[in-house]
Amino acid sequence: MVKRAKAGKGNRGDLSRTAAATRCRFLPLHLALEGYLALHFGGPSIAWDEWSRQAVRQGLSPRAEDAWLGHEVRGLTDALRVFEIHPGQCGVMVYAADSLAAAFVVPHPDDYRALHPTLLVDLYGELVHQYAHFGAPVPEFEARIRDGRHMNTLADLRAAARAQERAWSDTHEAVLSRQLLSTSYAFERAYRMGPFELHRFLPPFHRGAGAEEQHIGELINDHKGRTAYLKTFRLSDAQIRRGYLLTRLAAHDWHLGRTAQKLGIGYEELIRRIRAAGFASLLNAHAVAGHVAGRSGHAAADASPQRTDETKET
């Protein structure tokens, strides 16, 4: 999805060919989605009995995830038409029902003005689509300035307005965008061009309280670490679960027994989760059935002597 554009053909001169050779083209968000869909694509490196031959030879088959175009997200078209583009604006954070849907950053205000409509042809996750349909209306934001009796000059009014802006900014960073900004991501460099690097990133796929909002995305930064481009995609709960399961399996070399033990669940429960996540084709049905039957047989054998002793005592 990311490649250097080939130099143009024809009589447009050396300048055109040089410019074409130093341009990078890629489709919005496809880099991030590729990174998520190809998560641990190689499958098990050791041919465990439970895994099918297909999984060992080919790894995970190409996965599919649902996504919606921006014009299919209820209200987004009207929002982009009505919301004002501010002087100097280089990006936007899109919220649905007070929940962060996506972040989009470009290097220059002229770039943003040109690319603002492209948010309608970009991709959004299942959760964003649902929130736009079923979320409650967002309350209006109002600026509240202290008692006017203390406003004697325009400088007082300006100071009060700036204080309100700071309060909004603090609330946004502490509440609305906290999980996007405070999460620790795994970055993978996909391309380098001069002083710029193109990365895709994945969240830690944490489960439990306080980890309900997680994003994947792509980023371009310069040699000083400054962001030149950013776009994110919010994952649904089901997508987080699949990422979490694949990450845990890969961490234990796809050994089902060790993975189940680390997760604190039984072997059968791990098999159920793998199937529920849509990865049933990776399992060797006969080996899994034999393993489960063997575990049941061992359990019965372990319990039999105890029952015999109890019968004798009775």
Features of this protein?
alpha+beta, disordered C terminus, two-stranded antiparallel ribbon, elongated, six-stranded antiparallel beta sheet, about 325 residues, about 45% helix
User: How do the helices and strands follow one another from N- to C-terminus?
Assistant: EHEHHEHEEHEHHHEEEEHHHH
Poorly predicted residue ranges = 10-15, 303-314
Largest sheet, described in full?
6 strands, antiparallel
Beta-strand percentage? 15-25%
> Helical amount among residues, as a percent range?
40-55%
Biggest sheet, spatial arrangement of strands: 4-5-10-9-8-7
Counting DSSP H or I runs of 4 or more residues, the number of helices is 12
Q: Between the first and last Cα atoms, what is the distance in angstroms?
A: 73 Å
Whole-number mean pLDDT: 81
Content-based structural category: alpha+beta
From the alpha carbons, calculate the radius of gyration and give it in angstroms: 27 Å
**Number of extended strands:** 10
Q: Could you say which overall geometry the principal axes of the C-alpha atoms support?
A: elongated
